[in-house]
Write a structure and sequence with these properties.
Layout lengths: L1 H11 L7 E4 L7 H17 L4 E6 L1 E2 L4 E2 L10 H9 L11 E7 L2 E9 L8 E2 L2 E6 L2 E4 L2 H8 L22 H14 L5 H6 L2 H7 L3 E2 L2 E2 L1 H7 L15 E6 L5 E7 L3 H9 L6 E4 L8 E4 L3 H14 L8 E6 L2 E7 L7 H6 L10 H9 L9 H11 L6 E5 L4 E7 L5 H9 L5 H11 L6 H9 L3 E4 L2 E4 L1 H6 L3 H4 L4 H18 L4 E2 H7 L10 H17 L3 E4 L2 E4 L16
Parallel strand pairs: 1-2, 12-16
Antiparallel strand pairs: 2-6, 3-4, 5-6, 7-8, 8-9, 10-11, 12-13, 14-15, 16-17, 17-19, 18-19, 20-21, 22-24, 23-24
Helix pairs in contact: 8-12, 10-13
Length: about 575
Amino acid sequence: MDYYINIFQNLIAHKENEIVEYKKAENSFDFDDLGKYFSALSNEANLRGLEFAWLIFGYDEKKHQIVGTSYKDGEGALNNLKHDFAQHTTDGQTFREIVPIEVEGKRMLMFKIPASPRNIVMKWKGIAYGRDGESLKPLNQSKQDEIRRQTPAPDWSAEIVPDATIDDLDEVAIAKARKMFKKVHSRIPAEEVNRWSTEEFLSKCELMVNGQLTRAAIILLGKMFSDSKLRPAVAEVTWTLRDEKQDVVDYEHFSVPFILTVDEILAKIHNLTLREMPGGTLFPDTMKQYDDYTIREALHNCIAHQDYTLRQRINFVENPGFLYYANGGTFIPGTLENALATNGPQRFFRNACLCKAMVHFNMIDTVSRGIKKMFTEQMERRFPMPDYEIDNEKKEVAVRIYGNAIDERYTNMLKNNDTLTLHDCISLDAIQKGHRIDEAVAQDMLQRGLIEGEAPNYTISLSVAKASKQLPGYTKVRGLERDKIKHMILQYIQNAGADGAKRDAILEYLEGTLPGRNTKEQNQILLKNIMVEMREAGLIDAIGKFWIVRSGDNPPKKDSSSKKG
């Protein structure tokens, strides 16, 4: 936090300019105005060759006074704001970070706004904005043209390796590349491909230019140790095996040629055979713990989209129940939602030369279907969806692939309800993991009876519980169990005496009685709802943060929600 306070103090030491904006925003701020400032500051940062711009809430720039802000001062509100923004900006861009800081005892917000990508004008709801002194207005055409005429960032993977020759390439790797090329390009007669010399083959795959090898050629086809010619870049995948305690059990480093070593890496996985009884059948289905396409696609994506200039290894960690992949670089689609929603090829690739070659060799595609197919495969297997962790600030993208069920209710629901869409399953999967979902999506699912509860702690609904044959588990806190909890709450408050009891203490007392499948936050909501019922029934009352039994002068009403039995 001190880091951002120092940044703020450095910013206010200088006058407001085109890439820094201050707003008092003491209580609220118009959503559309915030979007216009996002567009304007993003474009101005691009034009000045900067990585980002700043928007500060809670500071009166004219009076040089900290006023503080209560804008979006709710749990999860800032994350929801980042998500909502991505729905209205170019390429789904959103704030790099929104950081609350405390200065002079007052809350402030620092919005870190990324510069628009090269060649791309940042728009808000279809309109590009810019700064004109202290004014905010549509970006003039000359500045838009200036951005669009920018030279694209050079393709690192297409650069020539000056001292590399054919002797630096692995013959087995080249043979496999030819085989996969013929599979992808079946319209070209195999005999014709066989007649091509190695140089001709590599040239047609764009891995060789004017008789010289590219960096992509070394990454995919280079002999062991030839990656030294790529230094200071690092072309390496580290596989690690961890146990239940997250202790390292085994590890190994793998390098080029990746067209071969990917198979060696994946062979390390302990891909167990699972047996399940879908729908209660006596004839079990068998399947591998991890789907071959998914685990291969995830690793190929790491290799294809790694930012090799960061000098980092690709990490591949095998944990009990899930696989973890991480590569260096920003997430090109911007957000996961963009990657899942796209209906056409991606416009930009970090390593275009490398990606093209991997398409030729059937390792990836460039029509943006790979990530969506990974989600679909997990859905059809009734397993949890992949979890993406995108950190554009640290330039890292990670994904978890699950090889076991988390919540049996979710698994059974997918078995028995064939009307759910992929997006339904993604949202329900987030709920089973205790993650937040977009409020508009939540409201839709509430209306359809798929979930219930209050934001942000939604739970599986009664109708879904019935569909997934989990009604007994769902009703654990209904009927007699709910009466028992109420009785325990009443007894605890009575024992606390005249001073009363805090809700946190009551929650601790009820540990072991509330549903063990719930998160702590979910049980907090459950307890709150039960105590509201008891208050409305005249059993208990609140004085400040303390709860007491309703006095004899105002006797408890009969709890209509309870039934004897």
